[in-house]
Amino acid sequence: MSEVLLEVAGLKTGYGDLTVVRDVSLTVRSGEITVLLGRNGAGKTTTLRAITGLNKVSGGSVAFLGEALTDAPHKRVAKGISYVQEGKKVFRELTIEQNLLLGGFSRKMSKRALADSVSEIYQLFPILGSKRALPAASMSGGQQQMLAIGQALMAKPKLLILDEPSQGLAPVIVKEVMERIHELKDTGLGILLVEQAVQESVAIADEVSVIEMGRTTLHGSASDITIEDLQNAYFGAKV
Predict the structure, then answer these.
(1) Within the chain, which residue ranges are assigned CATH 3.40.50.300?
(2) Where are the alpha helices (DSSP H) in the chain?
(3) Looking at domain 1-80+158-239, which of 1.10.3720.10, 2.102.10.10, 3.30.43.10, 3.40.50.300 is its CATH number?
(4) pLDDT at 227
(5) Which residues contact 149 (CB under 8 A, 6 or more apart)?
(6) Low-confidence ranges of the chain (pLDDT < 70)
(7) How far apart are CA 162 and CA 93, in angstroms?
(8) Closest Cα to residue 146, out of 172, 105, 115, 174?
């Protein structure tokens, strides 16, 4: 059995006095992908914000490598958690290589180690290497998403959290992004993936969790979950 990286149990969180997530539980293991699904407004992003320290946990627990997470967001990055937020948040005016180098600064690596890490990203995403000197703004949406993932990987995380990396991308690009994400788990990385592309994400998942109205309605092995299970978890929504 792979090592448990992240364990969320009975999570309750929200914004100020507004509770959005009432009872969410999930697990992410090393070398595996856990996909978190749910309709718009179900509480997926709010769950990720609580895990990464951007939202206060008001109930339940969030543990990383067996220890409760109570640190500030930047300290969670230092512990090995990288978060790629929704919307391809890269520095558009900087070059691709500058974006990647910024991603590695949190690790306080030497120039040689930074260069080696950048080379690893170029091997994973060759298109970034071929355009390294161009500004990020010059790339397509799919390429910017790859850059955002590459930037997060520069911090050498144990856990990579991705919030809807396929958003706004053409189907053929969605397939390519999912293939790259699937390859990442072979490095031993644990991945928590929030997605609206249900079938594409379940196809690469090891575990699947569905939330509805801030509560977990389905959790289990991707190989055991059927389309009917997903439809029931979504309260009849088509997937």
Answers:
(1) 1-80+158-239
(2) 44-51, 73-79, 96-104, 111-124, 126-130, 141-153, 171-184, 198-204, 227-233
(3) 3.40.50.300
(4) 87
(5) 84, 125, 160, 162, 165, 180, 181
(6) 1, 88, 106, 235-239
(7) 23
(8) 174
The structure tokens 């970034």 sit at: 128
For residue 99, give the amino acid letter: N
At residue 167, the pLDDT reads 87
The pTM of the full predicted model, rounded to 2 decimals, is 0.92
Q: What is the dihedral of CA 144, 149, 155, 158, to 10 degrees?
A: 180
What's the one-letter identity of residue 79?
Answer: K
pLDDT at res. 236 = 61
Rounded CA-CA distance 52/46 in Å is 10
Instruction: State pLDDT tens for residues 62-91.
Output: 999 999 999 899 899 989 999 999 876 799
